[in-house]
Amino acid sequence: MCGRYAYFYLRNQLEQILGTGPEAAGEFENEIGANYNVGPMQEVPILTINDGRLQLTRKVWGLVPSWANDPAVGVKMFNARSETVREKPAYREAFEKRRCVVPISGFYEWQSLKELKRKKPYFVAPEESPVMLLAGLWEEWGVGEETLTTFTIMTTQARGRMAELHDRSPVMLRGKDWSVWLSGKPEEAIALCEPTEPDDLRFTPVSSRVGNIRNNDPSLVERVEHEAGDQLGLF
User: Fold this and answer.
1) pLDDT for 80-100, tens place per residue?
2) Is 193 assigned a catalytic role?
3) Catalytic residue among 15, 109, 139, 193
């Protein structure tokens, strides 16, 4: 957790959430696009600070430490536990110097239900907002044309409804917390990772099609209560 998410917000919606316009935002892309099934090692938009200005850039999901021998390690490093991020060599320096914000529309999580033969996927998204902001770290690996820039998403202990799906939750940034995460002192940033019980999330049961990364269309975030393969007692 978090190992799969989606983004389909518009540029002006993101700017509205951040409370800033194109001038302050620096090099925001004109077209962000959409991806309904983002998985590790895909290149996606994230927010960073560049020369004191907010910038929307694209980096690969799955952090590769600068000292790694093989960039393939990124496929397993798509999350960083907030409890140990200041101790682990892979994340320690990035937390101090290279924090980022990952804007998404929502993320997927799978819940084990006794009445089903398999886990049930849910799409977790804000009730009222088109954008959710997650805390992350970014890193640069390699030199010259072989340079690879990657990121990871911070996680914390799940609370409330989230805990029913998984024991971990991505660190969700509220209000102007995104600015503190990007530019605040390490002590201020780590405080934002404390477990909370969010009450403004929507949990939508969705199709198991999301489990196949090759499926990528708007229907993945639509409500699907039951589908082929569920036990007959549910119908």
Assistant:
1) 999 999 999 999 999 999 999
2) no
3) 109
